[in-house]
Amino acid sequence: MDYQLLKTFIAVSEYGSFSKASEYLYISATAIVKQMNLLEKQTDLHLFNRTKRGTTLTESGKIFYEDAKFLIHYWETMVEHAR
Questions:
Q1: Is the predicted pLDDT of residue 1 greater than 80, yes or no?
Q2: Long-range CB contacts (< 8 A, 24+ apart) of 37-41?
Q3: pLDDT exceeding 90 applies to what percent of the chain?
Q4: Which of 20, 21, 27, 77 is most buried by a 10 A CB count?
Q5: For residue 43, what are the contacts with CB-CB under 8 A and spacing of at least 6?
Q6: Cα separation values, 65 from 42, 57, 69, 82, 83, Å
Q7: Signed CA dihedral, 66, 73, 32, 19: sign only
Q8: Which residue, among 17, 5, 15, has the nearest Cα to 53 in the 3D structure?
Q9: Which residues are CB-contacts of 78 (< 8 A; sequence separation ≥ 6)?
């Protein structure tokens, strides 16, 4: 599991679309889609309901989102403590 994949997952979850997350992260929507496809493949989970109007989290995605936020916070705290 990769820090950047989790950050991207959180952005897509919070913005509700790949294009809005791409604007926030300053990377292409295509790159976002590829990253989220990779994350779903690595975890063997279906995390998003994709529609023409955006994305919503599946039940698995909602659980994964809460844990991803915890992990990112823990990672950033760990780095800060080490500094």
A1: no
A2: 38/5, 39/5, 39/8, 39/9
A3: 93
A4: 21
A5: 1, 64
A6: 15, 8, 6, 26, 27
A7: positive
A8: 17
A9: none
**Closest among 72, 64, 66, 25 to 47, alpha carbons compared:** 64
The amino acid present at 1, given as its one-letter code, is: M
31-59 mean pLDDT: 95
In angstroms, rounded to a whole number, what is the distance separating the alpha carbons of residues 5 and 45?
14
Confidence label for 24 from pLDDT (cuts 50, 70 and 90): very high
Question: Does residue 55 contact residue 3 with C-beta atoms inside 8 Å?
Answer: no
* Cα 55 to Cα 12: distance, rounded to the nearest angstrom: 8
Helix, strand, or coil here: 49? Answer: strand
Where do the H-state alpha helices sit in 16-58? Answer: 18-25, 29-43
